Each structure stands twice: as C-alpha cells, then as structure tokens.
Amino acid sequence: MKAQDQSTYDVIISGAGPVGLFLACELALAKCSVLILEKAEAPNTPLKQLPFGIRGLSAPTIEALYRRGLLEQLEVHKRIKNPHLHAKEGAQRQVGHFAGIPFLEGNVDTSQWEYRLPGSPATSLISEMQELETVFARRAESLGVEIKRGLAITGFQQNADEVTVEAGHQSFKAKWLVGCDGSRSVVRKLGGFEFAGTEPEFTGYTTRIDIADPEKLKPGRNVTERGMYMQSQPGYVVIQDFDGGAFHSSDKPITLEHVQEVLRRVSGTDVTINALHTATTWTDRARQATTYRNGKILLAGDAAHIHSPLGGQGLNLGLGDAMNLGWKLAATIREEAPEGLLDSYYTERYPIGTQVLDWSRAQVAIMKPDPGARALNAVIRDLINTRDGATYFAGRVWGIHTHYRLNGNHPLTGHSVPNFEFEDGSAIGELMHDGKGILLDFDGNDSLKTFATEYSSQISYISGSAKEQLGLSALLIRPDGIIAWASDKSFDLNGLEEAAARWFVINSKSI
Ligand SMILES: Cc1cc2nc3c(=O)[nH]c(=O)nc-3n(C[C@H](O)[C@H](O)[C@H](O)COP(=O)(O)OP(=O)(O)OC[C@H]3O[C@@H](n4cnc5c(N)ncnc54)[C@H](O)[C@@H]3O)c2cc1C
C-alpha cells in the first residue's frame, strides 16, 4: 500500500456519477471538504453518451438544479425557449408514458396543481448524462472538491470518529463515507447493508446496431406478445425480453446472433442485423437498502435503490437523495444539526424510494406477455386518455406530488416551495444559490425579522411582497427548498419556533 494521503476529509464519496457529483457540490457549498474516488479512468463512458445517455428530468430535479444556478448551464435548458408547460401548444404531443402508454400534453390539466405558479421551472426536461456530469464536475471542482479518477474503492473500516478507505493501493481518511457507486455498490456490499426487494421479470437490451431491413420494425415503442421493442432513432434499439432476467444474470457475451434472435422473437419479425456496435443489458430487479446509514457510512442514488428504468426515475430519485442529504450531513459535520437531523434523511427518502420501486413494478406488471396483464393494460390505456387520468399520471411521472410528511398544520408543509416571483422580477428559487434556509416574510413583520437573526448562520431573512402569494404571509424554507412551516394571514410564532428548532440550531459559533 502506498504512503497514505494524510488529509482527513469531511466526506469521501465513492463514485463520480451524477449523484456523487451533485452531493459533493451540496456538501462543498456548505463548506465541507470532499474527496470523490471514481473507479473509471475517464468520465463519459460510451453508455453515458448520446443516445444511450438521454435521461428525463422531473420537476423536483429541475427545481433543485434551478435553485443552485445549474439549470441555465445545461444546453438542453437553453434550447427550450419557454420551458413552462403550455397546454395549447402541441396539445397532441406525448409528454410522458406509463408502461409505454403515452399521455398527451393537451390532456394534462395543470390547473389542478394549485400551488404551481406560472413562473416555475419546467415540469420535465430531456437531459444528457454526459452533460449533467460535466456541469456537476465543473461546479464541484470550482467549489474545491477533489476528484480522483481511476481509483476504485475496494475496502474500508470505520470507528466512532472516522472511516479509512482503501482504493488503488492507497488509503484515505474521512469523517464520513457516502456510497454513490451505483447499482453494484461496493460500499453497500461491504458496509453490511441489507438490499431487499424483488427479482426481475425481464432482461432489457440497449443496443446500437445496423439493420439490413429496418422497415420490418415499427417505429416508436411497441409492446408485443413477447415483450417490448423500441427504435428511438435508426439503429438504436431497446428490447425487453421477459426471460425472468436470465440472460442479464448469465455470464454470456452479448453477441450479434443473440441480439438478433431476441429481437426477432420479441418483434415477431425475421429482421436481420448486419452489425452490433454497442450493447448493454439491464433488468427490472427492484431492490432497496433497508437502511441508508450504518454508523459513518451512508448510501445515495442507485447504491441505495435499483429498479427498471421504465418511466425514467432512477436519476431523479438519486439527485433527490443528494439534495436531501447534503445540507443535513454538512450541518452534522459542522456540529450545527439538531437531534435527529441526519436520521431524517432515511425517514424522508426511504418512502419516496419505495414509491418509485412500486411505480416501476406496476409498469412491468401490465407489460407482461400474458392475458391478465393485457387486460389491465387496456384499462390503464382508457384511464390515461381521460383528462383526470393524464393529469394523475403526469403528476406522478413528473414528481409534482413528491413531498415529505413533516409536522405542521399548513397543507404546504413538506412540499417544495412554489417559485414566488417578487415585484423586482427575481424569484425565490434564484435566492437559494447559497444553500441556506430562508425565512420568507411577505408582510415585513418585525417579530419575524428578529426571530431570523437568532438563526442567521443557517437562515436568511427575505422580506417583500410577491406577485402571487397564494394567501400566505410567511414561510420557513429548508436549504433543499422544502417548506418546513407556512402561515396564512394570522400566524402563530410557536409553530415557527418548533419548525426552526426541528431543522436548524440557534447561532452557536458563527455570529
Ligand atoms: C437504459 C437506462 C435508461 C435510464 N433512463 C433514465 C431516465 O430517463 N431518468 C432517470 O431519472 N433515470 C434513468 N435511468 C437511471 C439512471 O441512469 C441511474 O439511476 C443514475 O445513473 C444513477 O446515478 P448514480 O450516480 O447513483 O449511479 P451511476 O450513474 O451508476 O454512477 C456510479 C459511479 O460510481 C462508480 N463506481 C462504481 N463502483 C465504484 C467503486 N468501487 N469505487 C469508486 N467508484 C465506483 C462508477 O464508475 C460510476 O461512475 C436509466 C437507466 C438506464 C440503464
């Protein structure tokens, strides 16, 4: 083993995927020292490049990026002239799907989402993994994060104070280790985490191939009696073969002959493949770590939960973990965390993960090539074509309804803060770049201003009227944009005091 790196970092993150990088940004923003150890020598492996690297971003992710000033750095965002949802434009445009059944933009009734303000960022965007990782890595490094590539974590030991991590015959020390090392996470496996869930129904294939007779395949997504195939653009074919996940679990190589046999069987054609350029397999195995923390070891992203990519939620789920964990772990490290703050990472994120796993299982259940599944599929198809149905599915797929069950009487408690726009044209999301909590006071109340000074190291006080205030007078917003307390016109200071004490500590060192 080489001479040790003597620094003790606040946090070592295993994996420079999108979740590890975004978490590193959140921690560094909160003044923590962070080292990322990444197995791959270079960023941007072929499967993260287009078109394999295309990922759908949902509302909570888009809001998180917007609140940290990262959204405008994405080309995909710049390409969209007006990212807000306009039902009148392209009413027949497909804006999402459930088990391959599309829902149309014109059917989604956004007026049912009463707290979504017109100035909110988009509800869904198509992004590129490669670009996301480039933007996150640039941001992380600008905040002082060290990224060491070509170093796979192979082991670690923890005691009450620190974790010693081994990677590439070197060792590194940190107060905390977070496993963001993907679905086959070494941190999860060596950290003694139970990974409970369900076995797969199918093997999925993502391929780039030359097809001799492409006209034999229908365009778009096709659910067949044997599975599903989809040609997103010429030569890029995704297949789902209901083999119980057998091929993915085998050590067999993905050959041209095998892909051709599967594609012929699933599509019910005699299509011929001339060349196989790239191929990878995946499954709908759905598993979730039963706890996200073991001592000084934490998990986030695919390391904590895996499921099929149907409906594309894994990245969103993982970035949601990072947004939730970052400020809580940072406050814990700075000794500015109230009792139980870090535990709330698991209590808030585990149920969200479970919902996503079930959403993916429900889709697989109605895609199976059997009569019962086909019958259920027809019922869902009818429902999704109704206005309420499309609105429900859009709300779930875009994460509009994602919220945490927090104490508090106001219906907005636990929800993402609406993007209030102020008279000067600024919006609340743009005031969250520094990662601090916010006490937002629409009415300029002196008692709130005084209250906020007690927490000034963790909470900024913002006063001013908004164009649309939704009947509210004041809100306490956590660093992740979640409303901890909200009040209509007559507010009780006790509720605010309780909420503030739950998430923040009164100034200790900083003032
Ligand atoms: C075909 C497909 C389509 C998808 N579409 C969508 C979509 O539209 N929307 C969506 O939200 N999600 C989608 N997903 C899921 C999404 O890609 C993942 O959930 C997301 O990449 C998880 O990010 P992560 O950072 O947790 O893990 P990863 O992206 O897997 O990154 C983990 C990193 O850890 C590194 N690593 C692994 N082991 C070690 C080690 N021992 N030491 C150090 N580093 C290590 C890896 O090299 C990698 O860089 C899709 C997935 C697939 C397969």
From TrEMBL:
Q: Which residues form the FAD-binding domain?
A: 9-360
Indicate whether Zinc appears among the record's keywords.
no
- One MF term in GO for this entry? oxidoreductase activity, acting on paired donors, with incorporation or reduction of molecular oxygen, NAD(P)H as one donor, and incorporation of one atom of oxygen
Task: Quote the PROSITE patterns the UniProt record gives.
Answer: PROKAR_LIPOPROTEIN
Record's SUPFAM superfamilies?
A: FAD/NAD(P)-binding domain
- What keywords does the record list, in alphabetical order? FAD, Flavoprotein
**Cofactor(s) for this UniProt protein:** FAD
Asked if the keyword Flavoprotein belongs to this entry, the reply reads yes
Which named protein is this?
FAD-dependent oxidoreductase
Instruction: Give the organism, scientific name.
Output: Mucilaginibacter rubeus
Cite the source lineage: Bacteria, Pseudomonadati, Bacteroidota, Sphingobacteriia, Sphingobacteriales
